[in-house]
Write a structure and sequence with these properties.
Blueprint lengths: L2 H25 L5 H23 L6 H27 L2 H24 L4 H17 L12 H31 L8 H21 L10 H24 L2 H8 L2 H12 L6 H17 L2
Helix pairs in contact: 1-8, 1-9, 1-10, 2-7, 2-8, 3-6, 3-7, 4-5, 4-6, 4-9, 5-11, 8-9
């Protein structure tokens, strides 16, 4: 196992995923969320097919094709579920729940299947998970207005259940894509992206949300799909280099790069939760890489 490779590719995965999420958030201001997911999936599929051809990845067995397709389906279901709870309001609660669960699930799976890592790494995991929680927190200013009586009856339980489901889906994606036996990096992701694209197109058609994006959002839309695809590829590379739990913990730090981009480009202010989260992440990284 190559711990340096796992750490390097895991961190690069977090950075690229964060850039992709930031770009998708820009586009989501003018397009429905499911459309953003659909168009980014198309861009990602084209990117991964081209990279697989250039890289010369080997074909997959039927087992690996099915696992890759399953990973793509649960991944896109996680995105749709998270966007649904965002639309209900409660972003400051939903985002950290989904982020922490999606980190914990593959970390625990990796520990069960590969044994416990050394104590500094485990401490790094704990700090990374806490950092993801804090850095994903907002001040509540971006919450959608929800009536108190509606919140009491419906919104609060769903704002917990849906992000839990989303986090489980994202964690399941990381676990499933790591179970592909082939050493190929891009071909498993091609099958995953193809399966997820079919599903999201069906959902968009059922909701009758089909629309053509304007020229003003083409660049961030392409960047969203490309960076998301590359984040997946770097995660697979991190897993091939070493342990699943290390690769998952580091790649799941992507909310930090999204927050930093918002600070730099939109002049947003980091709230106290996010400042604590970034500090915890900065401490966690060298511990995991120790």
């Amino acid at each position: 196992m190559n711990l340096f490779g796992t750490v390097f590719f895991g961190l690069v995965s977090a950075i690229t995923w964060g850039i992709g999420d930031f770009s998708g958030g820009v586009v989501a201001r003018t397009l429905p969320a499911r459309l953003v997911v659909m168009f980014s999936q198309i861009v990602g599929l084209v990117t991964l097919v081209m990279l697989a051809l250039l890289w010369g990845d080997a074909a997959l067995s039927l087992r690996d094709m099915l696992i890759s397709g399953g990973a793509g389906i649960v991944g896109v279901l996680g995105s749709v579920t998270l966007y649904r709870v965002f639309a209900m309001g409660g972003v400051s609660l939903a985002a950290p729940i989904a982020g922490v669960v999606s980190t914990v699930v593959p970390v625990v799976f990796g520990m069960l299947t590969q044994g416990l890592p050394k104590l500094p790494i485990m401490l790094g995991f704990a700090l990374a998970i806490a950092g993801v929680w804090f850095v994903s927190r907002s001040t509540g200013a971006d919450e959608a207005p929800v009536a108190i009586e509606t919140m009491a009856r419906r919104a609060v339980p769903m704002q917990v259940l849906l992000p839990l489901t989303s986090g489980l889906c994202f964690g399941a994606f990381l676990i499933l894509i790591s179970q592909v036996h082939s050493p190929a990096v891009f071909v498993p992701l091609v099958w995953a992206r193809l399966a997820s694209l079919v599903l999201i197109v069906i959902l968009v058609l059922l909701q009758r949300e089909m629309a053509v994006p304007s020229k003003s959002v083409l660049l961030p839309l392409v960047l969203c799909g490309f960076m998301d695809a590359m984040g997946n590829a770097f995660f697979v590379a991190a897993k091939l280099a070493g342990r699943l739990d290390v690769a998952s913990a580091l790649s799941s730090l992507y909310p930090a790069s999204t927050v930093v981009l918002a600070l730099l480009l939109f002049k947003e202010r980091m709230n106290r939760f996010q400042a604590v989260g970034v500090l915890l992440i900065l401490i966690a990284i060298p511990l995991i890489a120790a």
